[in-house]
Amino acid sequence: MELQNIAQIEYATRFGRPEMFRFGAALTFIILIMLVAGMSLGDLPQSYMLIAAAMIGGYMAMNIGANDVANNVGPAVGSKALTLAGAIAIAAIFEASGALIAGGDVVSTIKKGIINPEVVGDPQVFIWLMMAALLAGALWLNLATALGAPVSTTHSIVGGVLGAGIAAGGFGIADWGKMGQIAASWVISPVLGGLIAAFFLYLIKRTITYQSDMKVAAQKMVPLLVAIMAWAFSTYLILKGLKRLWKLEFGVAALLGLAIAIGIYLLVRPIHRAAERQTADKAGVNRLFTIPLIFAAALLSFAHGANDVANAVGPLAAINDAILHGGIAAKASIPLWVMMVGALGIAIGLALYGPKLIRTVGSEITELDQMRAFSIAMAAAITVIIATQLGLPVSSTHIAVGAVFGVGFLREYLKASYSKMVEEIKVHHRGQDEAAVEKFLNDFRIATVATKAEMLQQLKEHAAPAELSKKERKGLKRVYKTELVKRSAVLRIVAAWLITVPVSGLLAALLFFTIRGMMLP
């Protein structure tokens, strides 16, 4: 074969090489789990089942890393506060640290208590049930990641447990009240996240970017906003990230968080020196939020690793406990090797397949800058705190993506409102000197919100009303509307949320019947 032909073949196949590398690395991790588990378990009865479950648990952990971690670091990457490589490194370290340090040594065997294990009775059937649930959740996450849809890993495993449970014990095995709460979270999580993110973004705009002197406004507000962030994240970390090491009531956690926030405020109060060096525009203000965003990405990753590692190792720990003790327990201890499977799997999955979802969350839904990413991070922490205290079921994935929607739709509303005001000014000045109109518009652009309102009010009082036809008004509304949120991304993601539990449940039921058919004599 000629060298030219070889070069053409290499050029044609160059796009498949990274994918083959990722697949090979993932497969190597699964094989290593099989080898290490095989050597560790030795002649343990049914060790082959536990080895198979460990491999599935590793596969699930990698899919959690590939899909779910994007919510913690995606906004920071999209706003350019972090590079993609830096975000992956930070998230991998803190996700694994959260899983190993604060992941706990005991986990609930039935996620969220959605089925009654007593109905199953037979430990062997319970093992098949949990294996089917784990594999179904992992397969659905893999498919969602390939489609570029960030979905809830908790809902994936919940759907798997529900579907396999119904296949094993009938519809009476399920706690439909719990399932109703989970279904409610499909609405509660994104709406709460979106509203809180929009509130913080509007607060930043009103107090900093809408002020005539952004630099002075930033000197006053940024330290306060960072302190509020420290309060929210300290409380969030104590309540969620460290709950298995140090369980505290909300009031105590909030007071500790407040003490940390006061310390952070005193530490960053001299931020005016940094603000002095920045340009007096949005770009300069944005740069002041870079370091807080890096800390937010790290803390969110730590708390996520501590909480969501249970989605990968919970069913595995349940299988391990059932094999070792021959029974079904409500709680199961987690051996160190099981926790290592979860922690390493999340880190490896993030490194290999995480970039796709990080880009989706960070830049493919709406354009983000540091101020918007800061608002999203605040929503992620505060929504979980509020929901925990109110007893509302929420999904961290839905919160984060809902927060991205929230800042995008707020920007659309503000842009439409501003366009409408500018159009009103032009209509009221119709026929007047063009230079005078331009001067009024320039003064209007740099005015504060309060001054803008006064200018519009004076304009309406002294100018003749604009006579516009109904058709003209409709045309203006179309002019005002600017889509800053990608509708196709919204529809794809919401559709994936809605079908997560049903699809993973159906998959789990099919897998349960397949495994049972293979294992029965």
Distance between the termini: 55 Å
How many beta strands in the DSSP annotation?
Answer: 2
How much beta, percentage-wise?
Answer: under 5%
* pLDDT < 50 runs, ≥5 residues: none
How is the main sheet built? 2 strands, antiparallel
- Mass-distribution shape: elongated
Rg of Cα set? 27 Å
Determine the mean pLDDT: 82
Could you estimate the helical fraction of the residues in percent? over 70%
Key traits:
single chain, 521 residues, mainly alpha, two-stranded antiparallel ribbon, 1% strand
What would you say about this model in short?
The protein is mainly alpha-helical. The chain is 79% helix and 1% strand. Helix 5 runs antiparallel to helix 14 (336-364) and helix 9 (214-241) packs parallel to helix 13 (290-325).
